[in-house]
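During the second half of the funding period, the structural biology subgroup turned its attention to how the target accommodates small molecules. The most pressing case was uracil, which had performed well in the primary screen but for which no bound structure existed. We therefore specified the complex as follows and requested a full 3D prediction, including the ligand pose.
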Amino acid sequence: MIAENTLDEIRVEIAQCQRCPLAAGRKNTVPGEGPIDAEIMFIGEGPGYYENEQGLPFVGQAGKFLDELLASANLKREAVFITNVVKCRPPGNRDPMPEELEACASYLDRQISAINPKVIVTLGRHSMGKYFTNAKISLIHGKATWVKGRLIVAMYHPAAGLHQPNLKPTIMADFRKLPDMILQAKKSEEIQKTAQQNDEETQHEDPTQLSFF
Ligand code: URA
């Protein structure tokens, strides 16, 4: 499958990447994981200590909470794609710098094109910034917006729920909206496909027959 190859190629390129200074401090790159046909993609910020050790996204404390959140939304971790805006660990888990985000951006864009998810969930401020510049997460969390034919939803980062337990119920409530959002995105895709088919059929109709109407 072409898209699957593409995802593998991106992974190999990330493994060799020297585009920014984060490359020097990494143990492993963390390209992300999940199936090529994932309907939903989660974009976090960047690998932390355990992710850097294992080369896998969200395997530390925040990852455990993410697993709970996915289960509460009836989503299987193996069925979703999970990645980050930067694929190497920022030292001491600091925020990624604008030049690091910039250097890594095309990997994420290519992953999105290869997977073509129906819904994208951004986790935290930096991934929210990819779609919603200058937005306030406290105002837009859990609200779905159509961007280029797919639904984008900004959510609090799971680590925020661990640091501020009062946010936990809000994060959980936002996650529970996801099955409906996936359904909505699928329906819209079907409607568009049908409209396109109808258009194509109309274009191919015999002009002599059309003249009867
Ligand atoms: N936090 C993130 O944003 N990403 C990870 O992969 C782990 C923790």
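Two results from this model are relevant to the next phase. Residues 208-213 have pLDDT under 50 and may be disordered. Residues 1 and 142 are 34 Å apart (CA to CA).
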